[in-house]
Amino acid sequence: MRLARPLSLFAAVSIALAGAAATAAAAPASARASGTAAAGSGYAAPTMLHCKLNVRSGTKSSATVLRTLYNRNGNCPGKGGHDSVPCWLNKCGGITAGGSYTCQSGGKSYKSWLPVKHQGKRAWVAVKCGTYVTP
Hints:
This protein is α+β, with helices and mostly antiparallel strands. The protein is about 20% helix and about 35% strand. The protein has helices at about 5-25, 30-35, and strands at about 45, 50-55, 65-70, 85, 95-100, 110-120, 120-125, 130-135. The strands form three sheets. A three-stranded antiparallel β-sheet has the order 4-1-8, with no helix packed on it. Strands 5-6-7 form a three-stranded antiparallel β-sheet, with no helix packed on it. The longest helix has 22 residues, at about 5-25. The relative contact order is 0.20.
């Protein structure tokens, strides 16, 4: 009987580790290759509707574009695959009100920004123009 409890614990740990490995495997290839999508933090990426997502130095549409992330799947142009950037806070938290933006010309206006990690520093993406994956 006493052997059953350690085996149950071992089985539970094994299942948890397998789930974590599957979550890491689901991250975009660029995030896995660079090691930027740390386990437990989540990442931001462009959507199939908005094929690109700008990473900016601040929470205004006039802030400097540090990097542009592209989605090259489905209806988006390109040869497949998509870029991503890790979230600054665990589970892609910390949404902040900032300057107004639209995801497409003439579209609805929004003011919510998500902090992300760009080259080890905090940067921002327009929340409504991207998708966010958390473990």
